[in-house]
Structure formats: structure tokens, C-alpha cells
Amino acid sequence: MGHPSKAMIRRFGREERRQRLIDALKELAERLGPDISITQFYRETGINDTNVYLLFENWADLRVQAGLPPRINRRKRFAIHTKEQLLDRVKQAAEKFGED
């Protein structure tokens, strides 16, 4: 489908504009995963936060309408390893470098 342009969004009625933003966010979530920020949404679609706030209560509202959790799990988003993986690495290092 592709992302709607800003001019295209202005031509449609409110409900259709809302649906186009919902569809754009769903498409991004399929491609990039669910932890999309409003800044990423703007970078990927060219649709700025003003349009989001004119059509939705807030960014969380748009996320919920698109079937995403209302908030980004920032801990998960920036985590490189799970706690279990880190503990395994510490155990491996202790075994390798520990005193005999």
C-alpha cells in the first residue's frame, strides 16, 4: 500500500485519515516490530505529530487503535541480552578466569 503523503491525508475525511494513520502504523509495526516511537513514525512516513494529535487523543491512542501496546517497552527495546544470557556469560567468565 505504501505510506500516505501529507497532501493525500488532508484530502480525506477525518475517519479515513484516522484509518490511514492506523494502517501506516500497522505496516511499520509489521516491518520494524511493535516498539515504534512517534519520531520513528514521522521519519518513516513523513506524517508529523501534529496530524497524530489532531486525529487521536495522543500517540498511545493511535498505538492502541493499531493493535499495539500503548507504551513502548524501552527496557526491552534497548536490551541487547536477556538477564539469563548475561548470567550465563558471567558464569562462563568465572569458570574460564576463576582461580583453581
Q: Could you characterize what this model shows?
A:
By secondary structure, the protein is mainly alpha-helical. The chain has a domain of 67 residues. Helix content is 67%, strand content 0%. The protein is elongated and about 70 Å long. The N and C termini lie far apart (63 Å). The mean pLDDT is 84.
Strand content is under 5%
Helix/sheet category: mainly alpha
Number of strands: 0
Low-pLDDT runs = none
* End-to-end gap: 63 Å
Count of DSSP-assigned helices: 7
Report the C-alpha radius of gyration, rounded: 20 Å
* Largest beta-sheet details: none
Helix content: 55-70%
**pLDDT averaged residue by residue:** 84
Overall form: elongated
Order of helices and strands: HHHHHHH
List the helices and strands and how they pair.
Blueprint: H1 6-11, H2 14-32, H3 38-45, H4 49-55, H5 59-65, H6 74-78, H7 83-97
